[in-house]
Amino acid sequence: MTVRIAIAPEAAIEGVGRPTDVSLGPLRERVARAVERGGGEVVPLAEAEGLVWLLPGGPQPLMEVLDAHSHLRWVQLPWAGVEHFTQVFSYPQAFTCAKGSYAKQVSEHALMLALACLRDLVRHARAPHWNPIDPRSLGGLNVTVLGGGGIATELVRLLQPFGCHVRVLRRSTTPLEGADETLPISELHAVLPSTDVLVVALALTPETRHIVGAPEFALLPPGAVLVNVARGPHVDTEALLKALDTGQLTAAGLDVTDPEPLPDGHPLWDHDQVLITSHCADSSEYVATMLCERVAENVRLFAAGRPLTGLVDPAAGY
């Protein structure tokens, strides 16, 4: 049986009367084709069983749509991180997100940041004169990855040729393929003293906010570097600056910051041990392509009554 799927922003307009965001038109057309590839039919919201939500911003518009259209059974969100939508997950619908979809590009970015930090790329790039600085190799180092989802899985694979000892810390202790150790998050303090590269790649929840702060920086060994490709609030920014200034931390590679966007003039911008990329680990084209793959897959699964990919756990918040 063909499943009927609505797509925002048009669905949001029908539901709550908001103006069209015309910039989403091309993406909506691609998502519509993905729905059809999955065996679904794009229909108006009043006729839909499922909803693909593309509208940027906060959760209120989606909540208004769900209040007005309780017949919906499934909502696909376009983001991997859905920490701003936790209040929506109290609704009875099944919610899926894009977790894992963008992992390949983000894991490449994490590897790049780690290599750049170890080789002092920021100081090299800013030097106005010949300035030899001895590089450090990633080969054989101890890498601790906070998070055991798609990014961690891909990063572990990318690290294999470097001969690193890789620990993954996650909610589940089910071994992650390729990792030398898979441990619970509670073991973080125990492993930090032997961590050369700490990579943050986990979902943001109240429990993981500031999971890396002054106590954690104090436990890292001399020469350690931090890479954050998850969310800015995972790291205590003031503690990070202090750790860099005192030499507790050698370098940081940040695709995300707290606050974000990072304001002009913030001390992180001028720090010669910090490499910042403006939350651009995955490209717009890549995101659109992978989102469409997730939509097509989930439409097929929804039609077949099978478990959906990227299902949000309301209790965990992601």
From TrEMBL:
InterPro entries: D-isomer_DH_CS, D-isomer_DH_NAD-bd, NAD(P)-bd_dom_sf. Pfam families: 2-Hacid_dh_C. CDD domains: 2-Hacid_dh_2. Residues 112-281 form the D-isomer specific 2-hydroxyacid dehydrogenase NAD-binding domain. Keywords: NAD, Oxidoreductase. The keyword DNA repair does not apply. It comes from the Bacteria. The keyword Nucleotide-binding does not apply. PANTHER family: 2-HACID_DH_C DOMAIN-CONTAINING PROTEIN (PTHR43333), D-ISOMER SPECIFIC 2-HYDROXYACID DEHYDROGENASE NAD-BINDING DOMAIN-CONTAINING PROTEIN (PTHR43333:SF1). This is D-isomer specific 2-hydroxyacid dehydrogenase family protein. It comes from Actinocorallia aurantiaca.
